[in-house]
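Hi R.,

Here's the chain you asked about this morning:
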Amino acid sequence: MVSSEKVGYFKKRFKSVWEAYLEFDEKITKLLNDTDRVMLDPVNNQVQEQCCEYCKTINIDYRNVLYGSMLLMVCSLAEYIFKELAKEIVPNYENRIGKRRGNWLIRNLDLIKEGGKVNIDENDVEFLSYYIRIRNCITHNGGIVSSGNAELETAIAKIQEYAKKGNYLLLKVTSDGHLILGDNLVGEVYIKIVDILDGILDFAGD
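And the predicted structure, written out as tokens:
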């Protein structure tokens, strides 16, 4: 049985990553605010135009790089953590994991659930699987949505549908097929992973 200390340690790892993300996001916001102040005190039209382009670059390109990088980091850390937990909870892990189907998240959580009565919300698992497809698109395709990728298109549609209920943006696709990640996306992924870890922590013992 996995120790509560180990689960707690993994949660602290996630927290440190989350705090770093918030700090970077705050710096980008400050940079935007400073640029806005320059625009409110115009010297000439050329300066205003340059500031507008600069703001656009920061607000879209910089943020998208930050959100994409954080999504990769959070998903990679989650993959490592869930594998390590499954190895401790499930006997003969290496033999059993190879017989499972699905992505790394589904395969490892299925084994963890078999190893004990963990409290894992299947909705969290479903949506994390969608976010993993977004991560894979960024990793393997530079964030460009290729036509005919039914699994990715389903993931995008499901995430957008979910976001509408909360009246906020998680992601969108530009007219030329580029993924633009919303302000709340990394937070949604982080919360769902921590919820799953909490479910495992309820099961964990010394």
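Residues 45-89 form the longest helix (45 residues).

Let me know if you need anything else.
M.
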